[in-house]
Amino acid sequence: MTGTPRTDTGRLMELLSVSLGAYYGDFTLAAASENLTASQGKALTVLRRGPAAMRSLADTLTCDASNMTGIIDRLEKRGLVRREPSPSDRRVKNVVLTAEGERVTDAIRARMSATREGLERLSAQDRDTLHSLLERVFVSQ
Amino acid sequence: MTGTPRTDTGRLMELLSVSLGAYYGDFTLAAASENLTASQGKALTVLRRGPAAMRSLADTLTCDASNMTGIIDRLEKRGLVRREPSPSDRRVKNVVLTAEGERVTDAIRARMSATREGLERLSAQDRDTLHSLLERVFVSQ
DNA sequence: TATTGTTATACTCTATAACTATA
DNA sequence: TATAGTTATAGAGTATAACAATA
């Protein structure tokens, strides 16, 4: 962007920390607007991609399996998810979003206006570049 | 990066969610290696830039002021920070990192190897580009 | 024997409300 | 009156350890 590279890894990590804080704050606020905690919102977001076993959920959210019990308990009590026995392994319970759960999850994403507006300040090509860079840093190994 | 833009805002937000999740996981693990919670690590990171009043800390970490009391209590008990009375306003307490607090904070950052290695896969120019894009999305308004 | 999910426990985080000491 | 920080409280997240059911 400039002729002189001015971004050492330390400064970039600092900015990443600030960016994460902004994103996470936006997400937490959006979840709170549906009376959900950030952890509950994260679980719903993961389940929006499809059903998952308790253990798999815990792995994805990088928390202990015992935590998932309470989180899913509270979401189930509100009718946002339900537990279903796995047909192939009777130890396993699959967690599935209900229709109301899908609605709430989509509402959370729609409410993340700060992040959305930030992204929409970029041109289509810059969004493409950001996508590619993030993928190289955080996804590919 | 390609001639055809393929990155709509929704997909980019999804990738952002995954990327920041990876960063947060890396940070949480690094903090845990120093026997600190993520919130404690975040507070130290903010204080690494310089002293801050309790209220200002709560604002930066977007949590209620009453939470800071407990978080700073625990950090102070471990000798990582200390409270100092403000010279200009006797209601205010400034929180300052101790030398040990600085050491621990730097150790956390040094431990974030997954993120660091991800960033170091980029050329200096690509790091510059990523810096500029993140700043435009999350910092400038 | 190993794994899945749950329970019990203890500690931490979080917001709300009420309090004090300042301003 | 308003603000900075603390305390009390209750609900939620978190890891550890132990357990029953199943593989």
UniProtKB/TrEMBL annotation, chains A, B:
State the PROSITE patterns in the record: HTH_MARR_1, HTH_MARR_2
Keyword DNA-binding among UniProt keywords: yes
InterPro entries recorded: HTH_MarR-typ, MarR/SlyA-like, Tscrpt_reg_MarR-type_CS, WH-like_DNA-bd_sf, WH_DNA-bd_sf
Residue span(s) of domain HTH marR-type: 6-139
Q: Which UniProt keywords apply?
A: DNA-binding, Transcription, Transcription regulation
Top-level taxon of the source organism: Bacteria
Recorded protein name is MarR family transcriptional regulator
